Structures are given as C-alpha cells and as structure tokens.
Amino acid sequence: MKALGDWLETVLPSGWVVLQAQQNRATPPIPPFALMQIISRKRVATNSREYHDQSVTIIQSLVMTIQVTLYGTGAGDGAVQLNTAWRDHDAVAFFRDVLPEAAPLYGSEPRQHPFTTAEKQYEDTWSLDLALHINSRITRSVESAIQLSMPSTRIVGADRLTDEVDR
Fold it and tell me: Which intervals hold domain Phage neck terminator protein gp12-like (predicted)?
C-alpha cells in the first residue's frame, strides 16, 4: 500500500493527499484527497519455494485489487489520469524500482459516486479499481542435515552368509 500511495502521489496533481482507508478515529482531510482500500486478493498460481541454507521462502502469486476513491474538485479528471497512467510503461518501471515483487496489471473504468457531505453539500467523488500482480513472500527457518554419519557395526553371522552366497 505504501508503494501504491507513493505512485498515486506522482500521478495526481499537486495538492492531493493520499491515505489508506478504514483507519479508526481519522477524520478525512479537506478535499482534494484520495483513499486506497484493498477490495480483493486472488491467488493465481500454486505456491513456489526457494530453499536456502537455514530457511525456506514460500512465494504466493496473487492479484490484489485496490479501490482508489477520489474526493473533491477534479476527482473525475484525477481518476482518468490514474487509469491512463496505470497501464503505462512508467508505472511498471516505478514498481520495478520501488517494489520489484509487484507489477501493475489493469484498471477499471472510472465511475462517479453520489456523495453528500454532513453539511448536505454535493462532493465530486470518483473511484476506480487498480489490479496489481504481487509475489508475496514468507521466509521461515528450517532445520536441515548438513552432515550425516552412521556408525559401522559388525553383523553377527554375516561372514557365514557371505560364504553360502559365494558357493
């Protein structure tokens, strides 16, 4: 979410505040502002693993969809700008540099929402969904055998068995 918020701030015009939604006891800022909220996480492949000397990394490939809602004057234009920039080479390059485990996939068409403030005033509100491919990694330690040794023992009667097989 941090990387996405940083990218949104590079695309939206100056003066926009970008926040993560669903935070308790946080009053919304004065518009214009954008809220990001994860709306789905969908697995797209079976896990893969990378083994290291004392650890294993489990990699889950998923598509995370984040709804970005823009409030205030210019929200519609901002949503169109985000939709256009999300499918551009610059967005891919940004995530490759900032968060290599993530890559932009696609975005929904911007949509307008009716929104009236507590003061009964209309507020320009638009949203779009941005899909991001992510390779989520969990690394945990594992025990492994570095060296294996077995004590040699003499089996009683083994010589007699060998003599019978040779005959």
Answer: 2-145
Look at residue 120 and tell me whether its pLDDT is greater than 80: no
3-class secondary structure, 164 = helix
Whole-angstrom distance, CA of residue 74 vs CA of residue 76: 6
Structurally, how many domains does the chain consist of? Answer: 1
Q: Are 126 and 112 in contact (CB under 8 A)?
A: yes
The predicted pLDDT at position 129 comes to 98
Show the domain range for 124.
Answer: 2-41+63-128
Cis peptide leading into 32, omega within 30 of 0? yes
Q: Is residue 72 part of a domain?
A: yes
Give how far Cα 37 sits from Cα of 34, 41, 115, 126, Å: 10, 12, 18, 14
For tokens 């234009």, name the residue: 77
Residue 154, domain member (yes or no): no
